[in-house]
Specification:
InterPro entries: DIOX_N (IPR026992), IPNS-like_FE2OG_OXY (IPR044861), IPNS-like_sf (IPR027443), Oxoglu/Fe-dep_dioxygenase_dom (IPR005123), Plant_2OG-oxidoreductases (IPR050295). One of its GO terms (biological process) is defense response. The protein has 366 residues and is an alpha+beta fold. The chain has 10 helices and 15 strands. It is globular. The site of N-oxalylglycine (OGA) has 11 residues, from β6, β12 and β13.
Length: 366
């Protein structure tokens, strides 16, 4: 492994502590260049325009009523094509479990700093309590802290790296994780069918049910005295397969880039927000594309979100599905393992869609 990935290049500052210190102005490191600030595309940052991202009744996708099922499949397909994002309701994950898992993470982040520091992460694996992605010295920083942990494959799970306090945390995360990963498997089937592939095709390309990788990133976006100068999370596309996000039910902040504009997502109660990652873009040969998104912060309330990333087996070679290739539309991407792909992001941090674009076969990019 590259030496530079073993430790952080400078002392880590917890954004939550910074926010709690009562500063009126944020440090230089968090100030984005004018063109990257949230205010540019919004007339009024304090009241960003909220949009409705397509909502799909997940149950209908598996209904015996063919009309309902086909309609729901079509909605997912269109959302994947046009937004790269959709929301699902009636997804089968217990609302009570969702709520309790959110609460337990609120409690974790409200613990004294010393307790959280026991889990301080390093860029070697990113597992644990962190405050930045990327190891470039002097890089611009985002206004958030996070906790990152592995849920799958089971052989790599190490619960001793998960918070021991609150006492119910490990149990809740394990239960929540397994429910959401199961949901991820169903989504993979839906996307396969919509692409005209065998139902288990995408999952097989990911290395099969027992080999897929899944991880949880809980993000904590503290309230910020100058929200119009910074971002909670810089523009990026998710590097993996699919993301299943449980946004804060009280505080908005997720923005999706659509036709060159940043739109704030209006979360539907008890829904998950699903988005396409770079590896689905590769497998589908860009029939589905990952879409850039970012998070804005505000001066009134902290925000907590839970993202589960459903990813390929890390050493599995991924390339566009043969069945989707035609003479007019040959493979756009060269084969690569997810391990290799992820390395760049782990070194450089969020970089919009640069990483997946750089994968393009030379033939295509001239
Ligand atoms: C992510 C992400 C969005 C959010 O973690 O990749 O995009 O609302 N999170 O926290
Ligand atoms: Ni993301």
């Amino acid at each position: 492994m590259m030496k530079s990935l073993l430790c952080w290049p400078e002392p880590v500052i917890r954004v939550q502590s910074l926010a709690a210190s009562g500063i009126r102005e944020i440090p230089e490191r968090y100030i984005k260049s004018p063109s990257h600030r949230p205010s540019l595309n919004n007339d009024d940052v304090s009241q960003p325009q909220e949009v409705d991202v397509p909502v799909i009744d997940f149950q209908n996708l598996f209904s015996s009523d063919r009309g309902l099922c086909e309609e729901a499949l079509r909605c997912v397909h269109n959302a994947c094509r046009e937004w790269g994002f959709f929301q699902i309701v009636n997804h089968g994950v217990s609302h009570e479990l969702m709520k309790r898992t959110c609460e337990v993470w609120h409690e974790f982040f409200n613990l004294p700093l010393e307790e959280k520091q026991k889990y301080a992460n390093t860029p070697a694996t990113y597992e644990g309590y962190g405050s930045r992605v990327g190891v470039e010295k002097g890089a611009s920083l985002d206004w958030s802290d996070y906790f990152f942990l592995l849920l799958m494959p089971l052989s790599l799970v190490n619960q001793s790296k998960w918070p021991a306090i609150p006492a119910s945390c490990r149990e809740l995360v394990a239960e929540y994780g397994s429910e959401v990963v199961r949901l991820g498997g169903k989504l993979m089937k839906v996307l396969s069918m919509n692409l005209g592939l065998e139902e288990d095709s995408l999952l097989k390309s990911f290395g099969g049910e027992e080999n897929v990788g899944a991880c949880l990133r809980v993000s904590y976006y503290p309230k910020c005295p100058q929200p119009d100068l910074t971002l909670g999370l810089s523009p990026h596309s998710d590097p993996g397969g699919l993301t299943i996000l449980l946004p804060d039910e009280n505080v908005g902040g997720l923005q999706v880039c659509r036709k060159g504009r940043w739109l704030t997502v209006k979360p539907v109660p008890n829904a998950f927000i699903i988005n396409i990652g770079d590896q689905i873009q590769v497998l589908s040969n860009a029939i589905y594309q990952s879409v850039e998104h970012r998070v804005i912060v505000n001066s009134n309330e902290d925000r907590v979100s839970l993202a589960i990333f459903y990813n390929p087996k890390s050493d599995h070679l991924l390339e566009p599905c043969k069945k989707l290739l035609t003479k007019d539309r040959p493979a756009l991407y060269k084969p690569m393992t997810y391990d290799e792909y992820r390395l760049t992001i782990r070194a450089k941090g969020p970089c919009g869609k640069k990483q997946v674009e750089s994968l393009k076969s030379p033939r295509q990019s001239d």
